[in-house]
Design a protein that fits this description.
mainly alpha; Proton glutamate symport protein; 19 helices; globular; Na-dicarboxylate_symporter_CS; cell membrane; Aerobic C4-dicarboxylate transport protein; transmembrane
Length: 394
């Protein structure tokens, strides 16, 4: 049994996370210097994201043969994303209203400098800016165009063989890079604990517990219910992607696990075109964890400043976040910019309240990232099943 456990990468990632927490708590000055290790690992993984997305989608579209089906998968994915993320937003608002995490004395809360976000009070969401700052969407568009063009080209068979060969090399190289995952998890966790300290959690523990509980319920009940309807089991799925979840926990980045979860979903039985279209699009439009966090944060700040929100205002916040939450991908700190633009539109909640959230944001980013990656995995399985592009590997 011990031999079996030590053969799995997830075992070493878990050990690395524990070591990072201990170093961050007992030697914070040294732990902060470990940031370069975690950051370097994530940067290396990011180098693989663009070629993997491009190669997967081009092979999928040009190999599928039916452009009509490609369009149907894309539209179905976007509709699914909008419905589920709106549900996540609504659940976040409902739980925050029920548990009331913002009923605290704000004089005792840790205060951070939020000037770079509050200074953006006039910023508005821009689809052009969103696209320009999102490399994943740019690669996705380029791959779709290339795949469509190849469908009409007489060089299609030769091109497909070339892309298949390139894919083998890219995934082969990625396999070796993933052996560094424990180092990445160690560096990311050590830096987080060393920089922000476990003590900063205590004053806002109620909000943190509320966010983590809501995300757990969302995964277990909402995503679990969707999975059950389509004859899948959420717990089996989570068990099969435990390495990716631990990697996201250690690095606080769902991007770190993007290439490996794409490969794993294919191994589970999802077709290459569905994985290639749904996962990259989902990383921009299907951010379930981020949606829950954003909606709960708005209600938390309203409660913190004793601002009573009417039903009409709550509906307006929900509608605003349905749009602005789609811009919370791809750029570090963009979640706070989204919050700033939402609070500016509401007018009644002080924008300076963001300063209270900055201290614990890093500790909640893990929950957001994990929920996001689970949500995108579930979306891929569901779309594949409805399109009859899923073959059970059991």
């Amino acid at each position: 049994m011990w031999k079996q456990i030590t053969r799995h990468l997830s075992f070493y990632v878990l050990i690395a996370i524990i070591a990072g927490i201990l170093l961050g708590h007992y030697a914070p000055a040294t732990a902060v210097k470990m940031e370069i290790i975690g950051k370097s690992f994530v940067d290396i993984i990011k180098l693989f994201i663009a070629p993997i997305i491009f190669l997967t989608i081009v092979q999928g579209i040009s190999g599928m043969g039916s452009l009509k089906k490609v369009g149907r998968i894309g539209i179905k994915s976007l509709v699914y994303f909008e419905v589920v993320t709106t549900l996540a937003l609504a659940i976040g608002i409902a739980v925050a209203l029920l548990i009331k995490p913002g009923l605290l004395d704000k004089t005792g809360l840790p205060l951070q400098d939020a000037s770079k976000y509050t200074g953006a009070r006039s910023s508005h969401f821009s689809w052009i800016g969103f696209f320009q700052s999102n490399i994943t969407l740019q690669v996705l568009l380029a791959a779709i165009v290339t795949g469509i063009v190849l469908n009409y080209s007489r060089y299609r068979p030769a091109a497909l063989r070339l892309f298949q060969t390139l894919s083998r090399y890219v995934f082969g190289a990625l396999k070796y890079v993933m052996y560094l995952a424990p180092l990445g998890a160690f560096g990311g966790m050590a830096f987080t604990i060393g920089k922000f300290g476990l003590s900063t959690l205590m004053p806002l523990m109620k909000l943190m517990a509320c966010v983590y509980l809501t995300m757990f319920l969302f995964v277990a009940l909402v995503l679990g219910g969707i999975m059950r309807y389509f004859k899948f089991n959420i717990w089996s799925f989570l068990s099969s992607i435990k390495e990716e979840l631990l990697l996201v926990l250690g690095t606080s980045s769902s991007e770190a696990a993007l290439p490996s979860i794409m490969r794993k979903l294919e191994d589970m039985g999802c077709s290459k075109p569905v994985v290639g279209l749904v996962i990259p699009t989902g990383y921009s439009f299907n951010l379930d964890g981020t949606s829950i966090y954003l909606s709960m944060s708005v209600i938390f700040l309203a409660q913190l400043y004793n601002v009573h929100l009417s039903t009409t205002e709550l509906i307006m916040i929900l509608l605003l976040l349905m749009l602005t939450s789609k811009g919370a991908a791809g750029v570090t700190g963009s979640g706070f910019i989204v919050l700033a633009s939402t609070l500016t539109a509401v007018h009644r909640i002080p924008l300076e309240g963001l300063a209270f959230l900055l201290g614990i944001d890093k500790f909640m980013s893990e929950a957001r990232a994990i929920t996001n990656i689970i949500g995108n995995g579930v979306a891929t399985l569901v779309i594949a099943k409805t399109e009859k592009e899923f073959v059970s590997m059991e």
